[in-house]
Amino acid sequence: MQSTAERAELWVGAAILAVAAGFLFWSTSGGGVRQSLASGNYELRASFPNVDGIEIGTDVRVAGVKVGRVSAVDLNPETYLADARLRIPTSIQLPSDSAALIQSDGLLGGAYIELQPGGAPDNLNAGDEIEDVQGAVSLLGLMMKFVDAQSDEDDTP
Fold it and tell me: Residues in domain Mce/MlaD (predicted)?
């Protein structure tokens, strides 16, 4: 026969597992934002020279507001560029001359894709490619260029 303390431990353990399962479901569903083809999303493509920090599930933002997610990142064996597929809602129609930039979310290495709408009269359709792209910028590379430029100035008479 189980004692009252053993039953209480069993119920507390079950509650902890249920809460953990709820958090796992919440985190894998995009924080409560479900994005599927049935809910009115479409996919755009963008080919970047460098996608450092970008992976499946990375945020896609317009004016700093999260509007979608990266659904896939693959290396194109013909161009050696990283092809990213971006899933955004159909309620957001981007002009055909829009740009996609990889932005740093801070000094700790987080990144997201920022979409900058253009001014063209026609819009991008599902499956279209965003031509104007800017890959990830390496902060270490920028610092090394700055240090190198400073050392060149010190060497000049």
Answer: 41-118
Q: Is the pLDDT of residue 65 over 60?
A: yes
CA–chain centroid gap for 133, Å, is 14
Q: Does the global pTM surpass 0.90?
A: no
DSSP β-bridge partners for residue 45: 85, 129
Give 51-120 as a DSSP string.
Answer: -TT--TT-EEEETTEEEEEEEEEEE-TTT--EEEEEEEETT-PPBTT-EEEEEE-STT--EEEEEE----
* Concatenated DSSP letters of 38-56: GGTEEEEEEEES--TT--T
149: helix, coil or strand? helix
Q: Does 49 share its domain with 25? A: no
Residues 104 and 50 in one domain: yes
Domain that holds residue 2: 1-32
Domain count within the chain: 2
Q: Is the pLDDT of residue 38 over 60?
A: no
